[in-house]
Specification:
129 residues, elongated
C-alpha cells in the first residue's frame, strides 16, 4: 500500500524559491554588467588623448541586460569622431579625423569581458555541483 501525504505550503514555498532565484540571478547579472562596464572604461581610458584623460565616465543601467556608458566631456565626441575646422590662412574647411578611442577601447575589452563572463558562468556551474 502506498501512503500519500500533502504539503499545504509547497506551492507557497515553490513561489518564494522562484522569486529568490530570480532576485539572485538579477543581482548576478547587474554585478557582471558593472564588471564589464569597468573593463570597457579601463580600456577606453588607456586610449583617450591626454587632454580629456580626466573625463568622467557615467554608467546608466537601462535594465538588467543593458548598460549605457557615456563620457562627460564635450570635446570627447569631436576627438573620437573627428570634426571640421576653418583654416583661415587658406580660407577653407579642414576635416580633422577622429582617433576612435571609444570603438577601439570597446574592441580591446571584448576578450576580457568574455573571459570574465566565462569565469562567472563556471562559478555558477560549480555552485550547482
Amino acid at each position: 500500500m502506498v501512503e500519500c501525504f500533502k504539503v499545504d505550503e509547497y506551492k507557497s514555498f515553490e513561489r518564494d524559491l522562484e522569486k529568490h532565484l530570480d532576485q539572485v540571478k538579477s543581482k548576478g547579472k547587474i554585478l557582471e554588467l558593472k564588471k564589464s562596464a569597468r573593463i570597457i572604461e579601463d580600456s577606453v581610458k588607456k586610449l583617450m588623448p591626454s587632454e580629456i584623460k580626466n573625463a568622467n565616465f557615467k554608467l546608466d543601467f537601462l535594465n538588467e541586460n543593458s548598460i549605457e556608458i557615456s563620457i562627460d566631456v564635450e570635446d570627447a565626441r569631436k576627438i573620437n569622431n573627428g570634426y571640421v575646422i576653418h583654416d583661415v590662412l587658406n580660407n577653407r574647411d579642414v576635416f580633422i579625423p577622429g582617433n576612435h578611442f571609444i570603438e577601439k577601447g570597446i574592441k580591446n575589452s571584448k576578450f576580457l569581458i568574455l573571459k570574465e563572463l566565462s569565469s562567472y558562468m563556471n562559478g555558477l556551474l560549480d555552485k550547482l555541483k
